[in-house]
Amino acid sequence: MLIDQIKTDMTRALKAGESLRVLTLRMLLSEINYEQIRVQREITDADVVGVVAREIKKRREAIESYKAAARTEQADSERVEMEILQEYSPKMMSEAEVKTEVQKVISGLGGEEKKNFGQVMRVVAPVFKGRAEGAVVAAAVKELVGDHNAP
Fold first, then answer.
1. 47 falls within a domain
2. Whose CA is closest to 128, among 138, 117, 118, 119?
3. Is the pLDDT confidence value at 114 over 50?
4. Are 25 and 5 contacting, i.e. CB atoms less than 8 angstroms apart?
């Protein structure tokens, strides 16, 4: 299981004296424990991947905020944490891969349904959960559907 890998890596980082990695993995394990309490069941790898994705998103937003405030040292620290977290995230699909998959899904939809951004997003969003960023998926759908209702 993924949680076991994280615990093993944290122990290895402790022995190697990698303080930032240890802090990041401790934080991740803490968030995983909170998630387990929230769902009130045994945590699965899918749950862990969801927690990792949420933490990566937090780091990405923090990096943008720190850059806007010209605080490059903090942004660099957040970037390193994000890179550590990405080791436990499945490989994300590229924009080209997302476009190809979205096109396949759209071609399988009915007449009017394939012309509405919202309806297409309802169908494709679950397909890409954990495999691609929502913004990338939305941009691909917007481009392929060409709907003016899109955000």
1. yes
2. 138
3. yes
4. no
| Structural domain count, the chain | 2
CA–CA separation, 134 and 11 (whole Å):
33
| Distance of alpha carbon 131 from alpha carbon 117, whole angstroms | 20
Residues 6 and 26 in one domain: yes
Asked if residue 73 belongs to a domain, the reply is: yes
Tell me the pTM: 0.70
| pLDDT above 60 for 4 | yes
Question: Which residue range(s) make up the domain with 122?
Answer: 95-145
pLDDT of residue 129: 75
Are 89 and 45 in contact by the 8 Å Cβ rule? The answer is no
- The whole-number pLDDT of residue 28 equals 97
What residues contact residue 49 under an 8 Å CB cut-off, 6+ apart?
2, 88, 89, 90, 130
Q: Which of 83, 84, 77 is nearest to 63 (CA)?
A: 77
